[in-house]
Here is the input.
Amino acid sequence: MGNLHLSRLTLSHFRSHKRAIIDCDARPVAIHGFNGVGKTNILEAVSLMSPGRGLRRSSADDMTRRPEALGWKITGILHSLQQVHELEIWSERGAARQTRINGKITPQTALGRIARVLWLVPAMDRLWIEGAEGRRRFLDRMTLSFLPDHAEHALAYEKAMRERNRLLKDMVREPSWYAALEMRMAEAGTALHAGRLSALEAIAKAQDQAQTAFPAAQLTLQCDMPTDAQDMRTALAENRTRDLSAGRTLIGPHRADLFGVYAAKDVPARDCSTGEQKALLVSLILANARALAADFGAPPLLLLDEVAAHLDADRQAALYDELCALGAQAWMTGTGPEMFAALGDRAQVLQVSEDAGISFVRQA
Here is the structure.
């Protein structure tokens, strides 16, 4: 099994951090400090080393340090499958985010070919009780971790659907205006759907094969659409009259939902207690990480913001044991060092404060 970890992370004018340098090894990184000192900002910086908008889904301009608003830059030394990569990610005065790998400017999607990054943040605690959009986003992040091209399928589908929806709102009825758009939607949409199903299969297998202290979640993708591109194209054409009345596209992967069940109790995840819902999320992230370790050849970088919330002491200790057994460099945050006591010297401990910035409490 290979290894994936950062040995250096630098932040320049990123969020609350004017200048920060973190040198570390492949062990988990436990970050503690009072609320509001910038712990999550460190995790967000690492999340930008994967395709997409990061764990907060913020614009480039939102990430710049205020009041200077000079733009920001993140650099990292990434060790991935016996190779070392120098990463640079930056934005100049609110401009679009840019990426450079080993001195060469590249699209964001290139990051998905050298690194895998997963995260669990407090906003996801409402996954099972919020709207379907949040669950689709969660599923797409899992799928993207296995299939870097998944983002391109999603973008292609969304772009074609926006153009089709514009025609629908304008009450355009001429079929020739729709044909090319529906072909693109059908091709990208069925690829999107197939990728999601493939990810769910990998997650299910990883849960079935693991001995873990966390409850397994049975996941089902609910999506009423053809799985063949030609059939999907036909369905879109046949549904135009209904879509014209609604002013939007009513079939396709953008209407999908993820349904979860606490397997051992046969209880829908939305009806579980807050602690059980958190445990199910942790279980899915761990399953995703195990499946990726087998698929990619190394466990992913894990970003676990306030992960101990809603977990009792036994489950906290079990989580740390599983992370260390997996061999993942997990970046974790908490308000106090006691939350990471069960890790002992298996982790590096960082303290973040407003006056002293970032300092190692225990590294070796």
Notes: The chain has a mean pLDDT of 93.
